[in-house]
Amino acid sequence: MSAVDPLLALFATLPDNKEETKAHIADALGKLGDRRAAPAIKASLDVIRDPAYVRWARPALDRLTR
User: Fold this and answer.
1) b vs e for 25-59, b when ≥16 Cβ sit within 10 Å of the residue's Cβ?
2) Domain boundaries in the chain?
């Protein structure tokens, strides 16, 4: 089990109305660099339009997909 697994599991279970928490977890997942997190972050960006969330999650996704 990698360090990403528990964060990815938590990210998947948080409701979309927890933008701040999800944003920080997305950021951490991006910094860990495990590309398995990219689909979950991308899917969340399709649903969560809050600018504060996008500011954290978009760079995380970009780090994972470059």
Assistant:
1) bbbbbbebebeebbebbeebbeebeeeebbebbee
2) 4-65
